Amino acid sequence: MKKVIHHCVKHDSREEPAISYKPLEILLQDFNDMIIRREWANIDILGISKSNKFVLVIENKIWSKESSHQLNKYRRIIESEFPDYTKLYIYLTPEGDDASDTDNWLSLSYEKIMEFLESVLKVRRHAMSKESLIFIEQYLSILRRNIVGDNELEKICVDIYSKHKRALDLIFEYKPDIYKGIHDKLLEIIDSHPDLIADHSNKQCIRFTTKRLDEHVAKTSEGWTESGRILLFEFINFKDKLFLKLVIGPGDSEHRERLHKTALDHPSTFKRLSKRLSPQYCSMFLTDIYKHDEGRENDHLQVMQEIETKTKSFLKNKIEEIEAVFIENHHDTNL
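Structure for PD-(D/E)XK nuclease superfamily protein, as requested:
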């Protein structure tokens, strides 16, 4: 938990009075006495350090959204139960999405959680008990496979498939993978569209931009995709739904701020825009494409047709509007 706390404090981009703690004091504390409670007052994870008079609140969302006023309710409970404690509220999701209340809740992704656990294994592997080691390694495996994605695992699977193609093709013929099918269908739509450019993608996240945006928005991203694009559309192919969002990735802070301000100035275009510019990934626009229904997944063709219809409708009716806002109001000087 110490790594989680220190990371969130170091990357807290909020300004006064939103920050209710002294960052340096928290970074100097060790939290050795922290007690972890699960599902206390329906809060997913609660960490309490009496010696430091500090409380950590984590709301964990994987396959669902926060319910109406849920975060405000939890914060009121914590304020009442721990009135004189320093408080840190964290909203944990697979992609590090912003919470509805960005003034009080910091975003954190499962990718960061994996980084923390991997660094612990690297430093303390030989000092850990066998049970702890197995638990952490299994948990990391679950995160890679089911939530975050694992490029190395994908390469291994491709190698296995190439060696046993005939046998696996027979299996796949009778058990179609709906999520892989969605991934392939979206890439097909992107590749066949004359105005779109595909970017780095995996089974869960399919990224692209438009030719006009690619010519107009400078490539100043750092540590995201190899293309250096800082503004990308993303199809998020989760277990329960498929949705599309426009994201500002990590990179030049001044460039990110100008892109975000452009969107803030056009609220009718950028639906469900995050009002606060998060330090790494900021959602600028979000729309639902398809909600998975296990009862319909066997009708593979119908699902693909529904996704194609909704996607092409967005490309026809909305994407030019988004392009126009950036081209008319956002001007990069370093293209």
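The chain has a mean pLDDT of 82.
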